[in-house]
Amino acid sequence: MFTTREFADHPAPRNPSPPRRWMPVAVTAVLVAVASIVAIVVIRDQPHDFATPPAPGGLTTTEPPRELEWKLINGIRLPFSEDGPAQVDGPRAHGYTHTPQGALVAAWQIATRVLTDARYEQLLGTQVRADLGQQQQVRNAVTQARNLTADEFEVAFRQPVAFQFATYTSMFARIYFAVPSVKGGYDFVRRAALWDGTDWVYQVDSGLPELPNSTGLTGFTTFQDRAGR
Q: 135 in a domain, yes or no?
């Protein structure tokens, strides 16, 4: 659930959690509206036993972030590592290394914080690249996220288990994140990060195609935290 003071003082109305047997359908209906804006995964009907390779020129393998640790922030586990963020000021987590690993952490950190912190407007102005129309779409997506039930929230913001770069240059990164699916196998979240000259920022439009649900992670690199998990 949302744990920031603003949400705690003014909780959004919530409907009772739907029976668990209907959870995949209920979550899909909510996430479809959000997915087109911030790349939250849309649950597919038929899983495959493969993961689609990255676009030509993409990185097929790369090292995970150094000394990775997942910390619980606003009810969600977010990545912290030697590749960033170096500082957290209010809702802003910033200071990422100018490396694929820094882009990786920034893409997940910033996009997730935009949706789950009541002070998201501060992030829109400093750490998000989007035109005015996209900014309004993000605000709409935040409203959708705030109205999720506790169970839907947990499903929508699952911790990723692996990643794959579709594109990486010193200025731009496009990444697929694999998350466990409520229907088995893995779903894939699309994220993009842009180097603004001093740090990585989140770009709303990743330009990546959706990947179907998969029972395998061919071409993906598994995250590993400090405990070796």
A: yes
